Amino acid sequence: MAESLSKITAVFETAKELTMEAAASARNATAIFGEDGSFRPRDVQRYLNSRHEKEKLVGMKAIATLMSKGDDVTEFFPDVVKNSAAQTLEVRKLVYIYLLRYAQQESDLALLSINAIQKSLGDQNPQIRAMAIKVLSGIKVPSIAPIVLLGIRKSIVDMSSVVRRAAAVAIGKAYELDKSNLETLVGYLATLLGDKSFYVVGSAVQTFVNMCPDRLDMLHTNYRRYCNMLADIEEWGQVCVLDMLTRYVRIYVSKGRMVKKPNESFYSDDEEDEKEVEKEHEEFVIDPDLEMLLAAAKPLLQSRNSAVVLAVVNLFNALVPEADLSFLGPPLVRLLSRPSEIQYVVLSNIAVLAIQNNDLFAPYLKYFYVFPSDTPEIAKRKIEVLTLSCSESTVSEVLSELQYYATSVDKFLVAEAVRAIGRCAQISNDIARRCLRWLLKQIHSADPNLVGESLTVIRYIIQLSPKDHVKTVAKLALALDSATVPLARASIIWLVGEFAGIARYIAPDVLRKCAKGFMDEDESTKLQIVLLSAKLYSYYIEEKPVQEEKDDTDEQLEPTIKPSADPMDLLFDYIMLLARYDTSYDLRDRARLYKSLLASPSSTPLAKLLLQAPKPSPHAPSPSQGKEKFLIGSSGLVCAGVNDGRPLPPWSSETPDASIRDEVKVEETPVLAPLPKKVKTKTNKAKKETKKKKVVVEKIKNVKSKTVKKTEEDFHTTLDEFFGEPAATSAQAQEDEEESEEVVEEEESESEVEVIVEVSDDSEEEDSEEDSEEEISEDEDENEAEDGGSEEESGESGIDEEESETEDEDDDDDAAGRGLLSGQ
Amino acid sequence: MSILAVYITDINGQKLFEYPVSDSPPTNKTLQVALRDASPEDVVLRLSSDELLFHRRQDALHFLIPCTASMPALVPLEFISHLIKVLHDYFQPPLSRQKIEKNYSTIMMLLNEMIEDGYPFVTEENALRDLVPFAGGLSKYLPTLPKGAANSLKSLTSSSSSSKSFSSDSSLTRSNVPWRRSNVKHNNNELYVDIHETLSVIIPALTPTQQMLNSINSGSTPVPSASAFYTPAVPQVLAEPIVAIAHGSVFATTKLSGTPDIQLIISFGNRLLEGPAFHPCVRLARWRERPGTLSFIPPDGKCCLLQYTISGVESGPIGGDLKTGLGPMKDEFEVRVWSRVPRNVKFVENLRVEVVFDGERVQNVKGTRASSGEFDIEKKGVGVWRFPGKTPMGWNASLRGTMVVNEDLATGPDGTVPQEFPKYVKISYDCQGMLVSGAKVESLRIVSGKGIDDRAKPYKGVKYLTKGKDIVIRG
């Protein structure tokens, strides 16, 4: 009883404490932020300088709030920097974010924090080491560039892939900090590009793309490895790797070509994809290395990330456009279920693909039917794809759909649909006739928008082959009797005038009819009637030179009009007269212009030029025409007028032998810059790593003899990478060699790196000694666990041994993840 | 190739949050000017020849990401999707101004992990949970701590451990599976599966022949339209849908300790999934061996395992049609909706029928008679017929009315005023318990799961949901 009572008391005590704490923190928050959200700088400072971690956190959160609002918080710099070695992770992270943003402005004060950060580089927790290298490289103070280099150098050989990944990013930032270090950094990057962990490779490639995108020669020995690990790289990294491999292939791998011997297939594992063109014994043959890439990239079409899907599509489109790419359709169509922003970008890309290959989306026409909920931009692209993808067999289906849109309420949709119908008309003469028939019907519509668009398209169709369309002009003239929309009447009259040259008997009659109802017409129509009369008159005087003599036969006309034998004269004069007394200035002016122009024979050539000049036929390409020059997925394709980066390199005519891609030791290539001077701590660390590795090797030996061989080999590689020496010598020899070098180099480096290195050296040595022990044991465990895991995996999912081997080499890597995915 | 900044504003463009990535990114003011000049649908805006703005609206917030022009267009847009997912995970949907303002420091730390060197870095919710303190812990409980809450004390003390010194913090060790956070522990092991399908259908207007058939034998023999449904006697001849597409997503909500390995088998009948997309955790080899098999180690919490698209599905549990030119004056229209009777489904929810007409020409809708539900003109050109609550199956309703035409605008060629009718009818609803594709969970097995009691049965079942989003019946 008493026991339980004391328990309850204890519980209440805790509860009380917690409540007090809560109350205190609540008070804190309101203390800094008054009711109106304002803050008192002095309070923030007090909290930042507090001894209690909790109060520091309150202070840092206040800073974070101010930063997020966009306020200037540089005044707190000294108070914040003091906390760069704070015990609480959250505080430290917030301090780091602060430093990343403001260090540039207070570079002197920022240097105060460098020591603490450098110390964290040797922390036993990989997350903290990663954080440290991230902050170190992100502080934009040029004077610390050498320290950053040193930090990176240490991190690229870190046991943890988390740290190596952070180092990969840091390399890019170090380059921005001091571009003169390019060669050194490229050397570091080469190490990481050859990293065993797919976790690191993605970020390394991202840095590569930003820092030295033209050094594609660095990828020779990595090419096949990347193909193998492509599926495991995280999605953002995949986007970069796919783009880079596309460029690589253009330069270093030969283009696929038609070969007469049919003994190779496009996809070795998939007979259906075999490409047969024209003659049976001709076949599309591609380089085995390219084939490897294509086979590796194809499954990524199933990525949930649409950016990856488009990167794969770009790869196929850029490298094997001749091949059967029908498998690209479904993944792209599936993306139409994504948010409208993504839909829009995907549709823009689909439209460009459809221009290049009309058949690609033909089986998926239904996905491009417009729903009322689609935004205008999406609807526009859908209509374009529908138009581009329809063939003679599907055109009637598409046309009836387009006709439905053309009669909808949405003005935008109407315009797009009618134009699309015009584009469909180009498929064949039969379809053109069908389109024309339907368009002519629309002239009677009450929707001026539809009428206007229809007439524009009719004009376009006629202009494509005027000779075939004399009847159409006649029909148009007939339609004039019933058309009521002024715009329609004006357009028809203009069209009749334009084609007066080919349909000689229609135009004068139209003019006669129009003259009768001139008074009731809209002004725009009157203008067109005047123009028509002028056009006809110019044809008339051209053929029959104006006769000087005129008969006085027509008595109905006013005396001002010169009587004439030909009705054309009469009509023209009549209309000029009507226009002269019209209320519109514009109309009167024009009438005067035409009249004087046509009055004297001397200006006839000028009049002819003015009135009969053939108008350029309205150009009606598909809206996305011309965008083919952009890469699939690039921003330039969806937004005009931007400089969207580098175009793909052209296929190179001469490619080096495929053997350059054999996986030899990276270090032997001249690409690698000599590593900078080594520091003592570094070497110690390396030796410790060596020991650790040995333990690992021992461990594995017991488990799998086959594995050991490989591990040892790769172990050399890691060391070799590190020392920049060929892999010929054994690990032991390597180590000895290194020790002898060390003494000389130590001196050099000491003088170069100066004070800060001195400070950090001690601490680092301490740290690394401590954690090396711990890490050894940790490492053993991990390897054990992994080994077990991979065995299980290989037993279960039938993954071959090679893959489980690579797992073993990976220090801490995602055993489960890799195992699962490598089956892809 | 770089993201320059992340801004979150409210829908009026007032800045709530900023996270500059580059040294001098375009300011929110610049972006707002660009947005004002563009049409609201423009997804990608040009700021200069080297800078672009990508943006998206979500939950009354507006996410703006200015980028350099060399960025592939979908990277920032997908990044916004991921960011929204992460914010939903941390702060629960829907997001609001208040949630952003309360959590500045957390959002800042999240973005610090999510963007590195101007490019997306760690974007998995689970991985981020290991890196950024989850605000759902202490701060969530404190304000609501009841006076004698001895029960909640236990959870309180355990969650407060996260604020201790980090050197002992176990959450810092990275998980072996990149998408799963480390050291997951749950007292109650639970596992749910949700399959959602969003249905889009276009039903064309009846052809003249079909209309004639309808008028001849009105009200008699129903024509069977969809095999899985029994159709009540309302419709006669129905137009076949020209488009019927279902977009499906399979979600797993796992609250399982340790590292469970799960196998989920879904049968899709003989239907063809167009380009399915998978969460990285799904073993693709297994799917290839036997389509429908999802074998995976799930991330903790909710995740979308599979997205698929199926075309040519049935037109769903709700049917409808639109007739025009009825009544003595031939000026009436009639909209009918009915629910079919599929197995295992008792009702649909949130049924809503939009009657869309030409808002320019039609002044009003007069003499509406609805057999049930309420009909109002919601805005220009759109009348909404609502059925609040649950609508039972095997039910039908009809709506009749006449459009009043604005005579000033709509004079026809011969001086008469053509009668206006609805342009189309759009139906939307939620229907639980069925999938329009007929997909079904066949089995779910936890292949291995350390830390889960053998006797425990974590699998709590599956929920099916068909969302009728765009059921369009053309007039």
CATH superfamily of the largest domain in chain B: Mu homology domain, subdomain B
Question: How much of the sequence of chain A is in beta strands?
Answer: under 5%
Q: State the CATH superfamily name of the largest domain in chain A.
A: Leucine-rich Repeat Variant
Segments of chain B where pLDDT lies below 50 for 5+ residues? 136-173, 219-233
Strand content of chain B: 35-45%
Q: What is the typical, i.e. mean, pLDDT of chain A?
A: 74
Structural class of chain A, by secondary structure, is mainly alpha
**Biggest sheet architecture of chain A:** 2 strands, antiparallel
Number of strands of chain A: 2
Total number of helices of chain B: 9
Biggest sheet statistics of chain B: 9 strands, mixed
Description:
The complex is a heterodimer of chains A (824) and B (475). Chain A is mainly α. Chain A folds into five domains: 31-217 and 239-254, Leucine-rich Repeat Variant; 218-238 and 255-324, no CATH class; 325-464, Leucine-rich Repeat Variant; 469-615, no CATH class; 677-822, no CATH class. Chain A contains 35 helices and two strands. In chain A, strands 1-2 form a two-stranded antiparallel ribbon. In chain A, helix 3 (53-69) packs parallel to helix 5, helix 7 packs antiparallel against helix 8 and helix 25 (507-516) crosses helix 27 (567-580). The longest helix of chain A has 67 residues, at 731-797. Chain A is elongated, with a radius of gyration of 39 Å. With 475 residues, chain B is an alpha+beta fold. Helix content of chain B is 17%, strand content 39%. A nine-stranded mixed β-sheet of chain B has the order 11-13-9-8-23-21-16-19-18, with no helix packed on it. In chain B, strands 2-1-5-4-3 form a five-stranded antiparallel β-sheet, with helices on both faces. In chain B, a hairpin with a 4-residue loop joins strand 3 (44-46) and strand 4. Chains A and B meet through helix 1, helix 3, helix 5, helix 7 and helix 9 of A and strand 2, strand 3, strand 4, helix 2 and helix 4 of B. Chain A: This is Adaptin N terminal region-domain-containing protein. Chain B: This is Mu homology domain-containing protein. Chain B: It comes from Lipomyces orientalis.
